Amino acid sequence: MKMNSNVIRTSLCVIAIALSAGSFYTVTAHQPSTSEVANAAGVPGGQVDLTYAAEKALPAVVHIKFVQNSKVTTVDVQSDPFGDFFDPFGFFGNPNGGNRQRQVQTPKREGAGSGVIISSDGYIVTNNHVVEGADELTVTLNDNREFSARIIGLDKNTDLALIKVNGKDLPTLPIGDSEKLKVGEWVIAVGNPFNLNSTVTAGIVSAKARSLYANGVESFIQTDAAINAGNSGGALVNTQGELVGINAMLYSQTGSYSGYGFAIPTTIMNKVVNDLKEYGTVQRAVLAIQGQDVHNYIDAQKAKGNEVDLGTNDGVYIAKVEEGGAGEEAGLQEGDVITNIDNRKVTKMAELQEFLASKRPGDKVKVTYLRKKAKHEKTVTLKNAQGNTSVVKNADLDVLGATFKEVTDTQKKDLNINYGLEVMKVSDGAFKEAGIAKGFIIQRANEQAVKSVEDLEKVVKDASTSKEPVVYIQGLYPTGKKKYFAVTLSE
Fold first, then answer.
1. How far apart are CA 227 and CA 245, in angstroms?
2. More confident position, 72 or 98
3. pTM for the complete prediction?
4. Which is nearest to 138 in space by CA: 159, 175, 118, 111?
5. Under DSSP, is residue 361 helix (H, G, I), strand (E, B) or coil?
6. Would you name the residues annotated as active-site residues?
7. DSSP assigned state of 364
């Protein structure tokens, strides 16, 4: 379950640097000496020198080429009741007007992005928006070696993805602790903006725990190191040559860099990568509350002419406690203000999200909160979005207990349909429990058109990790009778 924040959003446009290029580099050479670290960090008496960090980062940052092949797809169109006598554009469907479908050829799409090698056997971290939907992924190293890559797992909520190439002894970039970053500290951004390979820009950490309200879970590192289209998935590196963030977004009114970029901290990245490796999907722990930064809540109330005294100007104001969630079980209520979690001060929602992103369902945490300005503490057992502590896995079609094939042209003509999947066989599984029989033709699942087995598989995978693991099936039998089923996905 996502934690939503009702906040006043800035008028600046948040631009995701989609399909950008980046390379990650390994820090496996000598450890920097005390004098090198002092120099790099810009301590009093030392000159800022970022060459060490650049040398260590460049070999591990890669360029990712994205290809999505051309496909034939069916789109809904509004028919013209006066233009049905002659239709040279290949429309088909209801001859009496209303919505119809048209087959169109989608263009081939290509793009570029960046990634960071985090293990010598070929695991690479990048952004979800860099690789999602790709039919082909080509990874080019700093030394111009090329590899085909496959997707291990995607996480839209954090905009992170894990891909892999078949390689060995690849250069890697050591992972640092983004929690130790300080505002004002020097960092470099490494990537491939505008396909300019192996580009390094420098700046400082401008802020931490920024919310842009672009992802479900976010606590961005803000930097003034230049980030442009092509940097997405690239490395944010500290002066010790350690990966501290994955570059993801920029603030812009034009689409180009205008002073601030944003990176996903390694505190979030580490947990996502480990879960994608082990489970194929992220085991997300949630408090099951909705809320916002206290100072935003106070400002909103003042704008309405209301005076508010919560006993603090920092923390997370709870606007709603979800039924059946960890927060309700622990006794949290609307109007409470979370100020600490596991004895760590919480000043805003992004900090709370960053902390929870490192936890798994079943973990226990101590929540400190104010209720009517009185301090309280509770130990909370975190749950997943489905309200339990079980491991959540991406279900495949086996859970349905059925086999499928695309409908034939004859079936399309006889039933006046344009697409669908016929159920060829039903054995033990979710379909049998829901009452779906052999011969039924699936046309929609969870409001998504089902034109191929891959379409149905995607819906099942998405539903299996959602708050309500149910697939709502719409379709018809060979007689033309339409039917609707709710299919519950069990483990």
1. 13
2. 72
3. 0.74
4. 111
5. coil
6. 129, 159, 232
7. E
